[in-house]
Amino acid sequence: MIVKYSQIIHSPVLELKGQTRLGVAADLVIQKSDLSIKAVVVKNGLLNVNTRVATNTDIVELNSGSVIVRDEDSLVSFSEAERVREAISDKMSGINQRVRTKSGKNIGKVYDYTIDNSTCSIQKFYVKSILDERIISVSSVTKFEGKQITVKDDFELITAAGTAFKPEIA
């Protein structure tokens, strides 16, 4: 099943084992090497001061109404999840990232994206500019880093529908 980022954010995070609510999904963290979900940032408590993460190995399911993790031990502090902390500091959440073509043309900013919940991989980015909106397949992405996503030029966007994501190696 395909689910949108916007359907996951602010949904409850539930544990499968005890079937209790552990918090609310505050953000998703993207693994840049294969454009899959690396972790879910979970907030809990009054004023959401207790922030923890559930890594992709502990996520049982992402769906439009909740995030399900194995058990309460699936949630760890940021200090225990160094790679997740690094990805967050590198702005690897996908939302509000600028999208440009390889030739430098500005396409807009990401406002949503879809995820295959069985593999936790991103499928499409929803991009908006002042005058235009586009849906960009992940197969058109050539580079994903920091605050910017680079995609193939317009002509290549149309012809690249069947190719897999292969990030540019610098």
How are the SSEs ordered, and which strands pair?
Blueprint: E1 2-4, H1 5-8, E2 12-15, E3 21-31, E4 36-44, E5 50-55, E6 59-62, E7 67-69, E8 75-76, H2 82-89, E9 98-101, E10 106-116, E11 121-128, E12 133-137, E13 141-145, E14 148-151, H3 154-159
Parallel strand pairs: 2-7, 9-14
Antiparallel strand pairs: 1-10, 2-3, 3-4, 4-5, 5-8, 6-7, 9-10, 10-11, 11-12, 13-14
Explain how this protein is built:
- The chain is mostly beta strands.
- The chain has two domains: 2-89, SH3 type barrels (Roll), CATH 2.30.30.240; 98-159, SH3 type barrels, CATH 2.30.30.240.
- It has three helices and 14 strands.
- A hairpin with a 4-residue loop joins strand 3 and strand 4 (36-44).
- The longest helix is centred in the middle third of the chain and has 8 residues, at 82-89.
- Residues 159-163 have low confidence and may be disordered.
